């Protein structure tokens, strides 16, 4: 099971993500990945300015992105020693993407959360062979959550 810390302190004016949605999403991912051990992640919402800085520093891209994942899913004991994986989500970018694709911000954020956790689990989509592994699993998880996987 994936345990988590959720930091929404940067979100103002009712822009909160329901904790129940996050918990349900992490449970679905845990089951899909058949995780047999407790792992722990941190999920934080950051501003556009912060996301752009992180994206430039870690990916060499001077632009805002929707989600970044750092680290790998680790045993809970390692997380307690500060070796926790982290997912950063830019709410403003997620909102823009949701509006462009005509779906809810909630669904966009759940999509980004699933996508980020799969990256933390070693999945990637840079090469076609990797994408063929990652995207069907992502689709199954999103469908189970009732989120349109075509986001």
Automatic annotation (TrEMBL):
Main location: cytoplasm
GO cellular component, one term: cytoplasm
Cofactor: Zn(2+)
Note on how the cofactor is bound: Binds 1 zinc ion.
GO biological process, one term: rRNA processing
EC numbers on record: 3.1.-.-
Listed GO MF terms: metalloendopeptidase activity; RNA endonuclease activity; zinc ion binding
Annotated binding of Zn(2+), by residue: 115, 119, 125
Pfam families xrefs: YbeY
Subcellular location: Cytoplasm
Alphabetized UniProt keyword annotations: Cytoplasm, Endonuclease, Hydrolase, Metal-binding, Nuclease, Ribosome biogenesis, rRNA processing, Zinc
Gene3D superfamilies: Metalloproteases ('zincins'), catalytic domain
InterPro entries with a match to the protein in the record: MetalPrtase_cat_dom_sf_prd, YbeY, YbeY_CS
Function statement: Single strand-specific metallo-endoribonuclease involved in late-stage 70S ribosome quality control and in maturation of the 3' terminus of the 16S rRNA.
Family affiliation: Belongs to the endoribonuclease YbeY family.
Cross-referenced PANTHER family: ENDORIBONUCLEASE YBEY, CHLOROPLASTIC
HAMAP family: Endoribonucl_YbeY
Name under which the protein is recorded: Endoribonuclease YbeY
Gene source species: Candidatus Uhrbacteria bacterium RIFCSPHIGHO2_01_FULL_63_20
């Amino acid at each position: 099971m994936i345990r988590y810390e959720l930091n929404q302190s940067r979100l103002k004016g009712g822009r909160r993500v329901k904790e129940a949605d996050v918990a349900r999403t992490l449970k679905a991912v845990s089951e899909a990945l058949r995780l047999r051990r407790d792992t722990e992640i941190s999920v934080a919402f950051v501003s556009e300015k912060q996301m752009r800085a992180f994206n430039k520093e870690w990916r060499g891209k001077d632009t805002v992105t929707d989600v970044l994942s750092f680290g790998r899913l680790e045993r809970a004991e390692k997380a307690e020693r500060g070796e926790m994986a982290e997912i950063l989500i830019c709410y403003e970018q997620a909102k823009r993407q949701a509006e462009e694709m005509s779906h809810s911000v909630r669904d966009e954020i759940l999509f980004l959360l699933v996508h980020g956790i799969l990256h933390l689990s070693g999945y990637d989509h840079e090469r076609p062979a990797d994408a063929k592994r990652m995207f069907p699993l992502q689709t199954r998880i999103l469908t189970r959550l009732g989120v349109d996987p075509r986001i």
